[in-house]
Amino acid sequence: MAPKLQLPYATATFCLIFLSLISPAEAYDAGDALALLLGTVVAVVGLCACLGWYARRRNGQLLLQLLLIMLRMAE
């Protein structure tokens, strides 16, 4: 009996075939490269910020920092 093609593999195969039919962009200049680089940097910094926030929240340090900020505001 032949193996059955599972849904994730079928979707990936369909996407690869679909993307291979699209012609590449002809005009790729320095502005496009700069926008791609800037977007990548912003995405990586955002990911690191989210991971740091999650780690602090998990360790309970975020609550301590919020309390210290509230105490400073109350003075």
TrEMBL record:
Pfam families: DUF4730. It comes from Mastacembelus armatus. InterPro entries: DUF4730. This is Small integral membrane protein 30. PANTHER family: SMALL INTEGRAL MEMBRANE PROTEIN 30. Keywords: Membrane, Signal, Transmembrane, Transmembrane helix. The chain crosses the membrane at residues 37-55. Residues 1-27 form the signal peptide. The lineage of its organism: Eukaryota, Metazoa, Chordata, Craniata, Vertebrata. The keyword Repeat does not apply. It comes from the Eukaryota.
